[in-house]
Design a protein that fits this description.
Layout: H1 16-22, E1 24-30, E2 36-41, H2 46-58, H3 62-70, H4 73-83
Antiparallel strand pairs: 1-2
Helix pairs in contact: 2-3
Length: about 90
């Protein structure tokens, strides 16, 4: 994967139903200025959820790449530090 993720010009409709079925979700409006977007685990730890999404994105899943592109840069940096380039 590339070091940066950008949303495709015509992004697919992102549906959190699949994420919830996989045990994670995306939370918007986090952080001190309410401008952060985080990926969190529902039934597992956040790092486990990050690993699952990063692994699926690395295997070419457009859905998981779209999920990572929605995250704030700080969140993507934390994932990159633990799991390598996105």
């Amino acid at each position: 994967m590339s070091d940066t993720l950008e949303r495709p010009a015509q992004a697919h409709a992102f549906d959190l139903k699949q994420a919830h079925e996989e045990g994670w979700t995306i939370l918007e409006g986090c952080g001190p200025d309410n401008d952060e977007t985080h990926l969190v685990g529902l039934h597992c730890s956040d790092p486990q959820a990050w690993w699952r999404v990063a692994r699926q994105a690395g295997e070419g899943s457009a859905y998981h790449r779209e999920a990572l592109s929605r995250l704030s840069e700080n969140e993507r940096e934390q994932i990159r530090l633990r799991f390598g380039p996105l």
